Amino acid sequence: MASQVQICNIALGNIGGKASISSITENSREAIACNRVYVVCTRALLRSHEWSFSKAYYTLNDLGSPPTFWDYRYSYPAECLKVRKILPAAETDDPVHFEVAAGDTSSTRVILTDQEDAEMCFTKDMDDPVQYPDDFILTLAWSIAASISLPLSGDRHLQTQAYQAYLAHLSSSTASDGGEATWQQRGAPDWISGRA
């Protein structure tokens, strides 16, 4: 099972680092560099794709007082990194329109939609590396490697190589992740429903 330290040590190895860390909060150049970017890289990677392991559903809480042009204003869950979609109330392939906006305070957001009793599909903030699939771990390690390579080595060519490796792993891991679900069309296809 992976840990933050293991992921960071993979990242350090990816850029040819000879030192490893035993704690992400230790007072070494490597740990400081990793600690500075670990959470940001993890959240950015989670937001970049609808990963099956971080996909979750939530029934939204109506806050009332929606702005003009929207019927409902819902609270934005604290563990949500990205709203993927609002589920339609009936079986249909038509997407439910929504918008994310600032909430009543500077630290909150709201979800605006015309969907009553809305349920959403979202990317959950997964901060426990034990839950990460291996290909996600490798991709995250390359993301961290690209972010720490310049501060640690000063080598822009190494940074470019690490970023290209990250993109290659991202493409491979997202393609692999897409194979863990089946999809069935809801409702009649347009070519059938359009018949006289």
What this model shows, in words?
The chain has 5 helices and 6 strands. The chain is elongated. The chain has helices at residues 4-14, 29-47, 134-153, 156-177, 190-193, and strands at 55-59, 72-75, 80-86, 98-102, 109-113, 119-124. The mean pLDDT is 90. The chain is of the alpha+beta class and 196 residues long. The chain has 2 domains: 4-50 and 127-176, no CATH class; 52-124, no CATH class. Helix 2 crosses helix 3 (134-153) and helix 3 (134-153) packs antiparallel against helix 4. It starts with a helix and ends with a helix.
Q: Which key features would you list for this structure?
A:
196 residues; alpha+beta; three-stranded antiparallel sheet; 5 helices; 6 strands; 16% strand; elongated
Classify the helix fraction into a percent range.
25-40%
Shape: elongated
**Biggest sheet details:** 3 strands, antiparallel
| Straight-line distance between termini | 58 Å
Strand tally is: 6
What is the count of helical runs?
5
Question: What proportion of the residues form beta strands (DSSP E)?
Answer: 15-25%
What's the pLDDT, averaged over the residues?
90
Specify the structural class: alpha+beta
Number of domains: 2
Q: Strand order across the biggest sheet? A: 1-6-3
Q: Regions with pLDDT < 50 over 5+ consecutive residues?
A: none
Secondary-structure element order, N to C: HHEEEEEEHHH
